[in-house]
Amino acid sequence: MKPAGFDYAVPRTVPETLDALADTARDIKVLAGGQSLILEMHLQRIQPDLVVDINRVTELDRLSVNDGTVEVGALIRHGAFESPQAVPGPLGTLFSRAVVNIAHPPIRVRGTMVGSLAWAHPASEWCAIATALDADILLQGPDGTRQVPASDWFRGPLRTARRPGELITSVRFPLLGADSGVGFIEHRRTHFCFAQVAVAAALTVRGRVIDEARIGLVNCADRPVRAHAAAQALTGADVGSLGTDHRLPDGHPFLRAGRIAAEQDAAPLAEPYADLEYRRHAIAVLVGRTLRQAAEGVPQ
Amino acid sequence: MGRWTRREDERLLTGRGRYVADMAVPGCLDAVFVRSDVAHGVLRTVDCSAARRVAGVAEVWSATDLSELPACRQAAADLQDLPPVPHTLLARLSTEEAVVGREWPVLVKDRVRYPGEAVAVVVGEDRYRAEDGAAEVTFEIEALPAVVKPAAAAEDSVRLFEGLSNVAFQGVAGEPMEESVWQGAAAVVEARYRQQLLMPTPMECRTILAVPEGDRLTVWCGHQMPHRLRRELATLLGWSLDRIRVVVPDTGGAFGSKSAAFPEFVAVVFLALTLRRPVRWIEDRLESMLTATRGRGQDQRVRLAADADGHLLAYELTIDADVGAYPHLGVGLPMQTAWMAPGPYRTPRVHATVRSVLTNTMVTYPYRGAGRPEATIALERSMDALARRLRIDPVELRRRNFIPPESFPYRTPTGREYDSGDYAAALDLALETLGYADWRAEQARRRGDSGALPLGIGLSCYVERSGGEPGGLHEFAAVEAHEDGTVIARCGAAPSGQGHETTFPALVAKTLGVDEARVRLVEGDTDELPEGLGSFASRSAQVAGAALQHACGLLIDEARGCAARLWGVPVAEVAWSDGAVSPASGGSAMGLAELVKVTGPLRVDDRFESGMGFPFGAHAAVVEVDPELGTVQVLRVVAVDDCGVVLNPGVVAGQAFGSAVQGIGQALYEGVPFDENGVPQLANGLLDYLVPTATEIPPITVKDTCTPSPSTPLGAKGAGESGCIGTPAAIVNAVADALQLADADLLQMPLTPDVVWRAARAPKLRESA
Fold it and tell me: Which residues form the Aldehyde oxidase/xanthine dehydrogenase a/b hammerhead domain (chain B) (predicted)?
């Protein structure tokens, strides 16, 4: 478990970083928190020619709120979102519920949200949230800056729309309105391991009628999934009574949405200890529960 | 000792421990093994030529290269080829018959028999360069079908060794029974249990550093039995024992998995002598996942019969054991399960049979509990099933069958002689500590509330064996008193985290009546101790402690004799108390240090033998099950253990807590999944093999009862394995109780969410006929 040899560059600015990334003939990896990169290098599943360490590019260490969006720079660590106040409104609540599922506190001090989006692991919490909430990924490269919507960003396991020579500088989320309710629930075998399934949800409700549902699925396909079919089935549905049991009342629209998400939106793969039958079942259950948590959070 | 519970804690918890990997030896080379990525196959070619050209790589060998080496320079003249891995007869873990015709080569010669088996070894200036070299070694293996399940392997349609059956050992305990025993019983429970393969997972994986010095060799190794390692290496090399020194520095856990001479150890020693340079191997986690010894690995069938009042009539246990690819280390280990099959009950007829089957997996070997968890889980799960069948409370069923305290020593139908016990007392304390009646009331309330999550209560009563098997129940100890008041205690046990540095000096100080701070313990160095056995089978207090106490007694005798000669009186007229001799007739006492100033250093040593101990206990667990997802939330664990007389309550409680956590690991999380080619799916290390982490550990209450052992002078029994033995069945029984399963076979460990979800959908007890 030792990495193969590699070159190492430590730029101080974004232009210096872009210079370091410019030789597209080489296999170059960007190092921020190193949460996955360092492990994969030790396993020698990744053997880059050059590692570009951006930790001293201070302009990337920025979290800013303006015009109804929050922009998260490439050096903002996971741990920054443990407080629900870090980001205004229900989005801050959602982030804080999700982030405690990411590894352990020491890792959250190093790992970054943008790093997760760059790595694009199907079990990443941030990737599913970005997909569900229409985030934009902002990049700089040899041809200038561009932004890519999350819906077009993820191309498969560990594959994204990033082009050679490009640096992700930040990710931008639209803030959620104060009338939104959010939910995030993760299901896994121990705290240490990847999610078997996790679900992120944001609901807006008028009266008791669902105006809009946005649902992101973690580890339910080869990339993060936005559960469009389930969301569509919920639009205009009556939240009705949620009851107090651990199970939703029979026939509740959230149960139906869960089944639709599992059967139509998700494309899970079998894993040890979770075959397809169980995975689809768990997705349906978790979607229902997360929607319920979101509905319970909608201001009355 | 201030803020530290144990003497060694300040060093170990502030990063000042010194492990094998911390030893800085100039010119040391790091060894890295190139490992098979298939489970079973014929090795056709190994090409090391590209690896030899990698910068920083010193040498690369396959088995073929090594056999072509000229005779070792300066080493024994007959050391031309890598010697094979030794087998062990200790504790009847292996047998001569089992290894005949089944050589375990250090590097694969022609047949790969388990995934991760080494096909080549690279030594480099450091581990980075050696790994770079290893990446350049190419090899071809013609894959053969792999067998990983013992019953399938026993069919011999695929043989691991040509011309020999995969069944490498068969054994029996107790007398067979006629069918009428079962036909005449009011209730017979039949079940199948899988005791999955587990990995011991110490924090520090295996380590060895071999340093040739003149005509001697010093071996630094994280090891439980340094004298055994010395003996096995000396035998392999054809050397006398005194040419090898084995030293065990700080060791980060062993749990049974560090007591053999593994293939890598043999290779490192051979290479150090061949190259005349220090060579070390520091196993990393991924290697450990593939090639460290495994524990458990049994497929069991049971039959348990009782009369209408719940009195047990007969118990039959049939074991197909998965012992891995070579029979050298653990082919006889499942006999521990057979011998301990009766548990704490006075069942008149018990019959246990063992079939140990070779499979294409790394070798099975003792892992904390070593055969007793398998016995306890099979019996205690069956007891709960029987209680459901007879509609008797599981507590009551156990009480009706416990061997009563007045029956000891008790000889079991399998030939064990239990030393002492009060099994009902342990169960009573567990129930009281848990609040058993309150939890049953809560369970009843929830069963009446369709919106509540089901709750289950599980019990597990166990009796186990500590100290070792006959032939391995002795230990060596020496005590010497110096002029400056220092007492040096030497003992053949080698610790890997058990707290000997705290417990043993306290014992010596108390026995002699001297200041604890002046007692220093020396262990784990074969140059310091002429003989020794080690730390295994929970024997430290029971066996090594007894040896130290015995040596202290000899020292007192010696001191009294010296004083008698000094004073010109008969020995009978010299008294001993509080670390001093005094004339029995009265007069001033003379402290040990003072005496030594006059007489010269006092030193005594001896080998001392104890009897086997049979610790026991009762564990209880409360779980809440989410039947929709299959998740199990452990709300409470109570572990009541009885290890006889406790020397250090903090150390014993730590052993109980830590082993209970490992027991929870077996029940809920740990397992080795294989792909269709027989290769473990563990490429992501501990992300794939899940051990309980701080987040998963429930509230665990540890308590004890004390029933002294009559078979060892201290009255102490073993304390190191209780939770691995007692806790798993309590957890599984609690889940079965929550779900009210008609067919308990549906719950096979680990109880992962998918397993529990499937079981939760199956017919309930009340629905079945």
Answer: 14-145
